[in-house]
Amino acid sequence: MVSPFTLPPAGFGPGSQPDPEGGLQYLALPSGMRTYAPHIPDPVDPAGTAEALALLAEMAAACEIAAQGGPGAVFDLGRLSPGARKVLADALGQGEVSMKLRGRPAIAVQESVFAGVWMLLAEGLDRVEIGAVPAPALSRAHVPHRPALGKPPRPVPGLANAPAVLTELLDRSQDYRPGEMAHVVNLTLLPHTPEDLDWLDQALGEGAVTILSRGYGNCRITATAQAAVWRVQFFNSMDTLILDTFEVSEMPEVALAAAEDLADSAFRIRDVIEAIR
Q: What is the three-state SS of 102-165?
């Protein structure tokens, strides 16, 4: 018996024949990788430039101290002259990590091109903080923007692993102490449903801090309203979610400037100072 359905012959169909133009076709390659590129300001105000260079030298020293485990430092930029403020803004540039801190006042945080050198801007606030992470990002992180409900009163249709994940996160959150190793729940490797994610979102709420780290692709970090619990999501350069996790930690490591980063920043800032002089 002959089947009424006939398969197309092999070697035919879209993509099976060479391009008539003669060119080969490839999948799009990842792009958008950020790398460090020093920006040397063009000094037009000698007095402002000298003022900015003196402050940059203090920042370099603060980076060195923080890299050795010492305390961070805070620099008030509101006292600078307009010329010095412009030179400093040009020298610091914009790095990979930015943060939105809800609260009063709401604070916009932008890492400079020097890792561990953070610029904080808000109503009545214009300053630079040196350290692994700005202090307000830690103090405000889990202040509820949308309160955590804890475990919802009853499951909803479509739930799979959400109740077990929530129990694990609440248990780890209760026992977590700053400085301990992070605990990660990898949702990408764990069977789950859209209802699971909605249920967990309601149960954990939303905190006051959102972080975006841009490098090879993007990493979005959102504080929940549950103490020490963060949602960490990695996207590739085509903005496809490739890793979805919950992390129990003081601050996810991907958002932190390491000691090596701070030491490197001290070296690079001094290079910029010498180039401007």
A: CCCCCEEEEECCCCCEEEEEECCEEEEEECCCCHHHHHCCCCCCECCCCCCCCCCCCCCCHHHH
